[in-house]
Amino acid sequence: MSAENSNGFLEIQIENNIATITFGHPASNSFPSELLQKLTAELNALSSNSTVNIIILQSEGKTFCAGASFDELLSITDFETGKKFFSGFADVINAMRTCSKLIIGKIQGKAVGGGVGLASACDFAFAYTEASIKLSEIAIGIGPFVIEPAVSRKIGKTAMTQLTLQPNTWQSADWAVEKGLYADIFDSLADLNEETLTFAKKLAAYNPEALTEMKKVFWEGTENWDELLYERAAISGKLVLSDFTSTALNEFKK
Questions:
Q1: Can you tell me the distance from the alpha carbon of 64 to that of 171, in angstroms, rounded to the nearest whole number?
Q2: The 3-state secondary structure of the chain, one letter per residue
Q3: HSE-CB of 192 using CA atoms within 13 angstroms
Q4: pLDDT in tens, the chain (254 residues)
Q5: CA torsion 239→244→245→248, rounded to 10°?
């Protein structure tokens, strides 16, 4: 099944107890609010689907995910709208965190901002050798507030600091493996596809109850994210209205 329109698409395929979520958007697979809401809803539905043991999260095209929709960022003119927009990423990360199924990320291309957050919220991730990462938020006057807990949990505060304070610097897929974001990287997309599916099939053959209980263990200590991520969304919602951000966004648009 799929949901497709000019705001991008989301497709779900279920086969052999493996659900594959594929997303896409014409603007480098960035996420407008509507697509974030659809992804959250699908994750919640799959969490309670007894025919699904494992989830693969992937996108189409050369870029994995460019983060928040640039056009939507430019359209924010009040605090409540800003907070609601950034809460979309909070919703998705919390849905990934509380999902009863393990989520494997297949990162076939570059990830920026919220895209790094998505990769970090996966329980396990394989990547293509060209899947470099960048957090560009500070350059436009905001910051990766909502995704920070997920990214720091994966790569640690020191690496998170490096990414945040070098908003124009790409870190390589090798760097991401070294820091723990990716479990492994592959030199060809064919190998990435094959290894991801092979790994998913192996996991899907294990006791699903054991996998669910292990997932709870993996995410211990994140129970406060139900409040924390929305507090962070409020910070971003306020900062996006600043003169600095308004000027920076319009410069980027030019």
A1: 15
A2: CEEEECCEEEEEEEECCEEEEEEECCCCCCECHHHHHHHHHHHHHHHCCCCCCEEEEEECCCEEECCECHHHHHHCCCHHHHHHHHHHHHHHHHHHHHCCCEEEEEECCEEECHHHHHHHHCCEEEEECCCCEECCHHHHCCCCCCCHHHHHHHHHHHHHHHHHHCCCCCECHHHHHHHCCCCEEECCHHHHHHHHHHHHHHHHCCCHHHHHHHHHHHCCCCCCHHHHHHHHHHHHHHHCCCHHHHHHHHHHHC
A3: 23
A4: 444 456 799 999 999 999 999 999 999 999 999 999 999 999 999 999 999 999 999 999 999 999 999 889 989 999 999 999 999 999 999 999 999 999 999 999 999 999 999 999 999 999 999 999 999 999 999 999 999 999 999 999 999 999 999 999 999 999 999 999 999 999 999 999 999 999 999 999 999 999 999 999 999 999 999 999 999 999 999 999 999 998 888 887 76
A5: -160
As assigned by CATH, the class of the 2-253 domain is alpha beta
Q: Cα(202)–Cα(200) distance, rounded to whole angstroms? A: 5
Token pair of 166 as six digits: 């070098």
